[in-house]
Amino acid sequence: MSAPIRILLADDHALVRRGVRLILDGEPDLTVVAEASDGAEALEQARLHQPDLAILDIAMPRLTGLQATRELIRQQPGLRVLILTMYDNEQFFFEGLRAGANGYVLKSVADRDLVEACRAAMRDEPFLYPGAVTALIRNYLDRVRNGEPVPERAITGREEEILKLVAEGHSSKEIAELLFISIKTVERHRSNLLQKLGLRDRLDLTRYAIRAGLIEP
């Protein structure tokens, strides 16, 4: 018998992690080897434990699941990633695929779909919760027929990192220290964000970050 699939589980709610872990550890071919309560900790745990698969929530402190996905795959190209989320959201789905995730699973049906999604990811097969497939294909075909592009990112990855930290209440000095950049660079990015998004101040940035799923309200 082959070794179980080694899983990193990241969600900022301990009760959610506990429930998901019960589902996964109940399967003989799956084992949770590490947990994280935010995206940055997920990167640290992945470096320590070298899992086969990471299961990430979207809305987490410090780094979102989408941000962490991009960085995890950059650092560990062979790692498979699943997005586990409460958001039935087309934009997040496309962002997840663009970031390199193998699948998108809703928390509301995790007990039904998650185990299958883990096994599909390790076969390098994409997984979508069944209810989303028809709607997403229809939406994509409608966009193509109307000559519209598939949703693009409004802001860069670095701007997204800074937007999230601003919305979480960090000062420019704290952000500079967290991202190892200068305060002047932070201020420039924040100014660019306000201009790009047509916003006025930190409060507007925070509202935008909530709507974009970067932080929870």
Automatic annotation (TrEMBL):
Gene3D superfamilies, A to Z: 3.40.50.2300
Presence of keyword Cytoplasm: no
Keyword set includes Acyltransferase: no
InterPro entries registered for this protein in UniProt: CheY-like_superfamily, NreC/VraR/RcsB-like_REC, Sig_transdc_resp-reg_C-effctor, Sig_transdc_resp-reg_receiver, Tscrpt_reg_LuxR_C, WalR-like
GO aspect biological process, one term: phosphorelay signal transduction system
GO molecular function: DNA binding
Response regulatory domain mapped to chain residues: 6-122
Residue ranges of domain HTH luxR-type in the record: 148-213
Classification via PROSITE patterns: HTH_LUXR_1, HTH_LUXR_2, RESPONSE_REGULATORY
4-aspartylphosphate sites (modified residues): 57
Keywords in alphabetical order: DNA-binding, Phosphoprotein, Transcription, Transcription regulation
Entry superkingdom: Bacteria
Signal peptide residues on this chain, from the entry's feature table: none
Stored Pfam families: GerE (PF00196), Response_reg (PF00072)
Name assigned to this protein: LuxR family two component transcriptional regulator
Lineage: Bacteria, Bacillati, Actinomycetota, Actinomycetes, Micromonosporales
